[in-house]
Design a protein that fits this description.
Blueprint: E1 10-13, H1 18-29, E2 34-38, H2 42-55, E3 59-63, H3 72-77, E4 85-88, H4 96-101, H5 103-131, E5 135-138, H6 152-168
Parallel strand pairs: 1-2, 1-4, 2-3, 4-5
Length: 179
């Protein structure tokens, strides 16, 4: 039998990343229901099985490509109920020299680190606002505050994401997520 915890689910977007996996462990320990998403959901199945076994956690895995903005509403509408907490850890550092020379790579960095997460979290925020409750956490980067020549594409995208999160009133600091 599942141990009692907060019954409202936590959605982690980009859960196959190292930080996404670490966050999932902390929430599983706290006995929170989890919905883990990644572009390649098969990468999450082993982690989900471990969380179920180790912490008796209720874990659902969903395939979700954040860059495919046409699927944002489909994912959100398929969540029942809308999660109480959404954490977005999606990101792509890329390689500055290659990306600066290739507009497609530069666009991928910008879309992954700013455009797609902002659009997704904006839709989630609107729904949470209508419901009257919810918490959104977006993981940005210090590179957004101090982008330099070595990573200005990544840094500028993270700066945009941080500005979006701040403007929307979304918690962008990250570590204080267990409250």
């Amino acid at each position: 039998m599942k141990a009692a915890g907060d019954a409202s689910p936590v959605l982690i977007v980009g859960a196959a990343s190292d930080i996404g996996r670490a966050i999932a462990v902390d929430y599983a320990k706290a006995r929170r229901r989890l919905v883990l998403t990644a572009r390649q959901p098969e990468r999450l199945e082993r982690d989900a099985a471990d969380l179920r076994l180790r912490y008796d956690a209720e874990v659902t895995v969903r395939g979700f490509d954040l860059l495919d903005t046409a699927t944002h509403r489909t994912l959100i509408e398929g969540l029942d109920p809308l999660p109480a907490r959404v954490i977005c850890v999606a990101g792509l550092l890329g390689r500055q020299e290659e990306s600066a020379a290739d507009p497609a790579q530069a666009e991928l960095i910008m879309r992954t680190n700013y455009v797609a997460p902002a659009l997704f979290l904006g839709e989630i925020a609107n729904r949470m606002e209508r419901r009257g409750s919810g918490t959104i956490i977006g993981i940005s980067s210090v590179a957004g505050d101090r982008a330099g020549r070595r990573n200005y594409l990544y840094g500028s995208a993270k700066a945009g994401f941080t500005a979006f999160l701040s403007g929307y009133g979304i918690d962008w600091r990250g570590p204080a997520f267990m409250s």
